[in-house]
Amino acid sequence: MRGIGRAGRPAHPAAPGLSLPGSSGFPCGPPAAPPTPARPVAFRELRQYGRSSLHLADRPHESPDSAVFDRPPLAGWTDLHGGLLLPGTGLPSVAQLETLRCAVQRHDGIGRPRFAVQSAQMLADGLHYEERIRAGCIATREHNWHDLLNALVWLRYPRIKQALNLAQCADIAKIGRRERTRAQCAMTHFDEAGAIALCSDPGLVDLWDRHDWHGLFWRERPAWGSRIAVQVFGHAVLELALQPARLLLAKTIVLMASAEDVAAAAAGDDALGRRIDQRVAGLIGAGARLRDPQELRPLPLSGIPGWHPEARQETFYGEAPCFRPLREGRVYPPADDF
User: For the stretch 113-128, what's the b/e string if a residue is b when 16 or more beta carbons lie within 10 angstroms of its beta carbon?
Assistant: First the structure.
């Protein structure tokens, strides 16, 4: 999702009615005449089911250290349907992302809008960014980390992305392209900075709701990966994670789950990921979640053991600015069942 401010690129998705297209929902033809990549990129068939391997290594402005791909949250994205986020020779072109989309779509049977190179001609159509997606086209900038990571989220969580887009478009139809509802703000927060937490222990949610960060992350360190696990959805958070010292904060939906499901989520199990995709998309499509930004629990991802270099020190949880106290009167909704 993108903010209003550039022609045809409004900010965020909206609206109900969840009819997810099947494998034939969107065309798989190549995007119209994409430009030649400015830098070489490794791209080769790696696995069965037509999956492809993308070696993504063009160093953005920050020249990310390759170590960021060895720890969460980016470590969880190094193997996505054969698409590898690894140091290499360059970012993939939009045409290559589109090839990967078609391969993934053939494998899982879930339709996704096509990735197309953003151009002045495309933006001249006057459509909101979300309306263009609803019409079957995701405007994607060449060699751009933000748009690349957004594309990878579309590949991993297509149902949630579709649900957000449908909900955004419904609100756009109601209030126009220049205004934003509270629901649109919530969906934008989640799309850009969202995460999904699976938890089997209500006591951990209680610590979280009281912003007892020392208790949640330090005293309960053994719980992470066994009684609670987090999967990052927001592509802006993934982009910020390219900077290893950056403090990361996510806006989170919490699902109460079994210990087995929490362990599967911590291990990055593909089948569990598909169930998460379906469950959260259903909540959004039914209007049960993301109607207001205040629904989302802030989670300092940097506090999770192993997610930030300073998280090995107890003092980190009392000094880092991401660990904010609970605002007076702030109450979070009950967690949903998985």
Answer: bbbbbbeeebbeeebb
Cα 128 from Cα 41, distance rounded (Å): 31
How do residues 10-45 score in pLDDT, each as one tens digit? Answer: 333 332 222 222 333 444 433 333 333 332 222 222
DSSP category for residue 185: H
The upper half-sphere exposure of residue 60, i.e. CA atoms within 13 Å in the direction of its Cβ, equals: 17
Q: Please give the mean pLDDT across all residues of the chain.
A: 82
Mean pLDDT within 240-268? 96
Tokens 């791909």 appear where? 69
Domain edges within the chain? 43-175, 185-337
Per-residue pLDDT for 176 more than 60?
yes
One-letter-per-residue 3-state SS of 238-297? HHHCCCCCCCCEEEEEEEECCHHHHHHHHCCCHHHHHHHHHHHHHHHHCCCCCCCHHHCE
| Secondary structure letter of residue 120 according to DSSP | H
Which residue shows structure tokens 């909101």? 128
Residue-wise DSSP of 198-240: EES-HHHHHHHHTT-HIIIIIITGGGBTTTEEEEE--HHHHHH
Q: Is 329 left (phi over 0), alpha (psi -120 to 50) or beta?
A: left
**Average pLDDT for 149-167:** 97
Verdict on whether the full-model pTM lies above 0.85:
no
Residue closest to 58 by CA, chosen among 242, 329, 188: 242
First to last CA, the chain: 26
